[in-house]
Amino acid sequence: MAFAQRLAIIAGGVGGIGSATGKLLHSHGAKIALLYAPFEAARVQPTIQSTYGPDSGTQAYECDITSPTSVSAAFAAIAKAQIAFPSILINTAGYVNLTPLESTPPEDSLKHYMINLYGPTLTSQAFARLYLAAAQQAKLQGAAVPGGRIVSLASQAAFVALHAHGAYCASKAGLIGLTKCMASEWGPLGITANTVSPGPVWTELGKKAWSDRGVREAYQAAVRSIVPSSPDFEGRVD
Ligand SMILES: NC(=O)c1ccc[n+]([C@@H]2O[C@H](COP(=O)([O-])OP(=O)(O)OC[C@H]3O[C@@H](n4cnc5c(N)ncnc54)[C@H](OP(=O)(O)O)[C@@H]3O)[C@@H](O)[C@H]2O)c1
């Protein structure tokens, strides 16, 4: 199995893309640690059961990714549990709320930046420290060190101007900038960092933002202005 003896930590692990990603990694042998926000607690066990099945060994840790204290506590608990080598971090926690730019409330701009940019900053820093400590220990023991991998969910919205998406576009463009610096600074230490930029996917977040046909068509037209071959997602709408 490609990821046997590796731990994948999934921030936003109870969400739609987080669950699908975790399921795939688990099917390739990875052990899974889900990070969930305090307000998602009721969804944790049902998601673990439906996504991973009984006896999967999947662990869940309460973690508000916008709180340094909460992130530190969650990563300390993961380190203490010693489930497997902590080699993968998937940043999928996210937030979107469409409002015209001139009337976006300050607190809503901040919420985008906190969840979509500051949160991945904190989780990635905590992961890098955890990975580097584990790698050092493995080297001392003469054991093989798996590569570190950080994958963060950005968005096609990072690359185009979308009406009423100002805070979301900015947060995702910022995440790409952050990831380039993580790759540059941590690559030589053994951690690769990449973003993935989907178009609309019909999760709760996707439905909230892009259920309206006009909004969807404008989104698709904007993306096609830079990627003419961008696939038609119309057939995948509920
Ligand atoms: N779906 C799309 O069309 C699409 C397209 C491009 C990029 N993306 C990006 O892909 C990522 C995953 O999105 P998704 O579609 O899977 O959405 P989702 O199902 O809503 O999952 C996002 C998860 O993040 C959680 N979360 C929110 N605030 C958090 C916090 N402070 N701490 C920890 N967790 C928090 C959410 O909890 P609550 O549900 O309780 O808020 C939710 O479980 C996001 O970054 C999103 O921006 C999605």
Automatic annotation (TrEMBL):
GO biological process, any: fatty acid biosynthetic process
Gene Ontology MF term list: oxidoreductase activity, acting on the CH-OH group of donors, NAD or NADP as acceptor; quinone binding
Residue spans crossing the bilayer: none
Keyword vocabulary terms for this entry: NADP
Coiled-coil annotated residue ranges, if any: none
The keyword 4Fe-4S is assigned to this record: no
Pfam families per record: adh_short_C2 (PF13561)
Keyword Lyase: no
InterPro entries: NAD(P)-bd_dom_sf, Sc_DH/Rdtase_CS, SDR_fam
Entry similarity comment: Belongs to the short-chain dehydrogenases/reductases (SDR) family.
Protein name, entry field: Uncharacterized protein
Organism whose genome encodes this protein: Extremus antarcticus
